[in-house]
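Q: I'm writing a short explainer about Diacylglycerol kinase family enzyme for a general audience and would like to include a description of its predicted shape. Could you first generate the structure from this sequence?
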Amino acid sequence: MSESGLKRAAVVYNPIRVAGATLRTLIEPAAAEAGWGETLWFETTIDDPGKDVTREAVRAGADMVFAAGGDGTVRSVAEGLRDSTAALALLPSGTANLLARNLNLPVGNVPDAIAIAFSGRTRHIDLGIATLSRVDGTIEEHGFLVMAGMGIDADIMANTSETLKRTVGWLAYVDAGIRVIPSAGPFRIRYQLDDKPSHSVHVSTILFGNCGTLTGGLEMMPDAVVDDGLLDVAVLQSKGTLGWIDIWRKLRWENGFLRRSSIGRRIIRATSGNASTITYLRSSGITVSLDKPRDVELDGDGFGVIAGVRFTADAGALAVRVR
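A: Of course. Here's the predicted structure. Afterward I'll give you a sentence or two in plain language.
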């Protein structure tokens, strides 16, 4: 809050994706109309994609911080807001905008998003925490809002051209997938859910979700809830092309269409004993060790090669402005 006693907003924006001058013409009048004080403005950089300047904004008295950029900007701003009293406001402008979609916030309508920020309500959601163990023995901690993963998804992220993303959007991931999937194979992991015995399994991909919906309404984890204090885990075990077809059928047919009706849900229960290429788990935390180092991704951004990782849910750690 400012010295005048008025609430104060800050804007953290990615200048490559967002026109700061245009945002000013929309946000500053809306702030004044809502009775808020002068807005603070911060640009992200390659060295600081948002976390540090967000903490600077909070120290300067910001009650709410707009994250204006792609999923990486939103994730980094959320890290800076963790366990603070300031709320996150979303101005999605990236390729996927997954948190906004999972919270039913407008994508591509900046005036509506600004209106929700100033006149909506505050919802406290969980923040996923990834504690990464590097090959050299160092430990790093990072937050994520939607999903993290290892396997084909992380390999695709590691091989996606940033230039192509800016040019053709989500089609850049298709380009990377065409190059990665033919040579991809299963790998062995050992995982342990909190208070459970450990398991060894070969997987094609393993995903850790705070939210469940991906681009295009794809329900990767249909039972995931963003504020339940738990992480949902999807273990994908594909055996060749037919296995991937089965995964696609389950995501589009069972997780999507069938779950929308009582009859469909009965069909799912009746066939749940069949061998599945996707196994769902849920826990407040999970530890994973790897036979061989692999890439890891958090909210679609590659975070390099790791030897192991622990994922946890920091319950209610982030305040977000919603409808």
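A: For your explainer, you could say: The chain has a mean pLDDT of 87.
Q: Perfect, that's easy to follow.
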